[in-house]
Amino acid sequence: MYSHTKIVHVFCGAAILLVAFIMMAFLSSADAALMSCRADPIVFLSDGSKVTITAEIATSASNVQKVQYALHAPSGTQVVRVIYTAGGLGKRETFTLYDDSLPGTYVSDTVVTTRNGKVPVKVTTSLGGLNLGVATGYSRDHLIVSLLGSLLTAP
């Protein structure tokens, strides 16, 4: 038979192993949660609008093959400039403007392509910093956000 001391040692050893496995699982999921990247171009348009499209991608920047942004803006609108603010993705980001929407209507269509796996993506599009919309999905999905801007024109 086993003595009381040996039983206690076995249970303590098992408890320590259990705690170690739980901590390893927690740290692995925490590391996965921290492995993400972000891209967020700011687009200035000829109608005076400023549109920011933010893509939060649940993978490392090295796994992102490309991020394609398309913006459908009111007819006649042109791009004044695009500022890419997030680091790490650089030339893997592209932006295209389509001036095919009704007055005051802006629609962003973002597609993230990854090298490995299907990863969660959240896209937030804001118009002038106040009016915003969100779309969620996965890499290779078309994440579409529609916004209505002011229909007022300057005198």
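Next protein, fold it too.
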Amino acid sequence: MIKEVDKFIAKQVSLTKGSAATDQWSKPGAAVYMSFYMFNLTNKDEFLNGEKATIEEIGPFVYNESKTKYNLRWNSDETILEYFENTSYIFNKEKSNGLDPSHVNITTINLPLIGFLLQFEKLIKMSATFPPPINTIVKDLIETIITELSKDFNEKLIMTRPVSEILWGYEDPFLKFVADLLANVTFLDLTKDLNGGFFQLEHQTDTAGPNMVYTGKGSPQTTAQYLMYDGKTSITGWGTPYAQMINGTEALLFHPGVSRTDVLDVYVDELFRSGYFTYYKDITEFDIKMYQFRLPQTELQKAYQDKGFYMNGPDGVLNLTAVFPLNVPIFVSKPHFLDADEYYTNDINGPPSNRDKHDSFLNVEPITGAVLHAAKRLQINIQLKQYEDIPDLSHLPINTTYLPLLWVEETGSLNESIASTFRDTVYKPINTIQISAITVASVSGQYTNNILLAY
């Protein structure tokens, strides 16, 4: 009986042609929302003079997110599936509580300018290798260029802009001028997009290269695991082969027969790396029993991380500097530094963390491995410290500060209609198989008893 149920489930959840799982996976029916909570710096003058930053949270700014997988192509035995993915965002004013990202201004760090200044720091360090007095002349020249350009374009380390520009990008004349001016200076990485925007999001975008996953056919434990993401089989920038690996699924579907002892590997595209979730508790929604998995504290601790991820500083943040455009020192944490060392919260005045509101989780139906309710919550922080040679950064607090810029929440959940469909397509057939097996066993048993009685 168990074997027949396993066969049925494996067939249903494999990402093969015409399977129920392929249909739901490629065009999810559940509503998915991307919510942004911005951090507004309320004491910019004091902060620039070395005082502790004070921030307030403003949001949410909510967008309907739609992801569609298209151009699905299988290999000859349907064990591997290749596809492209389209992602689109539409602003949801109702869920944003009336907040309009085009009309709400936020005071925050000028992220592209930081990238530009740190690129020029490379020149200053290089000038130190020149013989005197050339080294001093070059260093002074670079500092003068930075100062004069900033004056001419009125460029400031701290800026105030609409939320829409901070998220979706804007053209900065100063940075465009510098990028064009130094386009042929190859060791200065200024050829990348300098149009602002923390994520450089677009309202509609397609993956540049194909994604490729195992379908689970013949090997259910590999269901939905990546072989390739966006045309890449590894992520350059990280320091070891292990750190560069693309492991896990996109957290929509795992292997059938998930247990509480499983460690679920996930590839997180926003972090350019893989992570994992561990069991937290049992939970029931819409009469469907699930296991809740959460991002463990160990995922944010140096002792448990591969050295190729360049973890440094106190526990609680992930260092993305090596893979972020212009190598801007971006560090990711749980919102409000949940599960992080108190070092981070001691250096800012801001609201406290709340586990139920700020932790990421996956509610997984264990029979199928389907994720029926999920929340991915990440906070983007920038590492700021004094640079004596760069005027705009010379008066910052002496201690290295990790200033929160925003946190983002991506959520998708069940409704009664989806839950009813799930129960009808999964639970009812399983019950039928079990009842049929019991009936066969009962009839067989009765037949055997009759033979024995005849003797």
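About the second fold: The first strand starts at residue 32 and ends at 41.
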